[in-house]
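Deliverable D4.2, example record:
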Amino acid sequence: MQKIERLAVFSSGGDAPGMNACIRAVVRTGLVNKLRLYGIMRGYQGMIEDEFKPLTSRSVSNIIQRGGTILKAARSKDFMTPEGMQKAYENLKQHQIDAIVAIGGDGTFKGAEAFCTKYPDIRIVGIPGTIDNDLTGTDYTLGFDTAVNNVIEAVDKIRDTAASHDRCFFIEVMGRDSGCIALWAGLAGGAEEILLPEIMTDFDELIQKLEEGKSNNKNSSIIIVGEGEKNGGADEVAHKIKELLPHYDTKVTILGHVQRGGSPTAFDRILAAKFGVWAVESLLAGENRKMIGILKGEKFFTPFSQATKQHEPLDMELLRINTILAT
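Output generated by the structure prediction step:
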């Protein structure tokens, strides 16, 4: 097994709260193990364009509480070409990089798998960093908890206005392919309804529930809509409801990228610390081409080829519970 002396870390795809805390954990664990550390700016694109910078313990001081990523994040179409991958490899060899910690999601790991297949002499371990919580092989991804808490904070404020004006608010949250944020934030935020990308919205049922709420003197409603909802999202759903229930005062709020920002929660910081330490230690132990995750509280490794967007059903028990509590 090739000895690791120089280790690089990068963040790729969309940013997620906790990435900086994770970078900090990778760097300091690497230094404890006498490694030389490098940060690659802008993910795979920075790897192609030779944007490497040495990292020290002081490089990662005072970042544990910061959102975003100090290494920047980007998506790179160039990397998936033979020429782009070759250039990235040449730059890694120029800097004598032996191993990489890749922080990102589905696209990041697909790129890592392709790179490892072509250039097996550079080992890569991945850390799941995406607010969507949609990767096979881990119960939680880095940034998900913070995103849910960001949504709840907004929902709590919107509810004040909804109650004051007897309004029905449709609040769209991120999750083009996964309803995890919508499901968790809807239950935690006391939403009357949660509309998910995984389930076709039944407008007859939705109207019935809204009307039942009215008859029970419920004068305001919060409906959480995952952005991948099959009718087109919060705007289209609200428009449809307004057509069918013209007496309703409907409003739409699309939270957008506010969900990604802000200081990571304690949960995401602790998750980042675990992932960062485990990533370095696993590489030193010989792991390669795998994503680190947590399943049922335990460290778990999933091959990059399997660490893709999950197709398992969401926890429908949460939706059932919300239906009971929203009556």
